[in-house]
What we know:
Layout lengths: L7 H16 L3 E9 L2 E9 L2 E11 L12 H17 L7 E11 L2 E11 L5
Parallel strand pairs: 3-4
Antiparallel strand pairs: 1-2, 2-3, 4-5
Amino acid sequence: MIEKGKGPLGKKGEQVAAEFLEAHGHTILQRNWRSGHLEIDLISEDDFGLHFVEVKSRTAPIEAAPEENVNPRKQGKITSAALRYLNSIGGGDKEVFFDIIAVVFNGDKTTVKYFPQAWIPLYT
């Protein structure tokens, strides 16, 4: 059975992802930032810029890699949310990145895969 969503598994996955990012030099600025119906799981900052991070958590066995669920439609929603966030803080001159972290729980083993710059949005 595949578990997903913002229940206990999703929250646990976001915690693991936040700890992973912090261990790799990021400062977590926001968790579950919302604007209307749009949400960003994690917003972090490192020496290179701001990272808008989508976290996908699953319990093994899995049918497909969690990161495959961040389709173009989902990317568009995250991009829109990021624009709202940037507008709410007055923009800035930092580089912006869109990342994915996939967390798979398999008994007492947890696998974390980080996809920095998973997509680059096109603004038209």
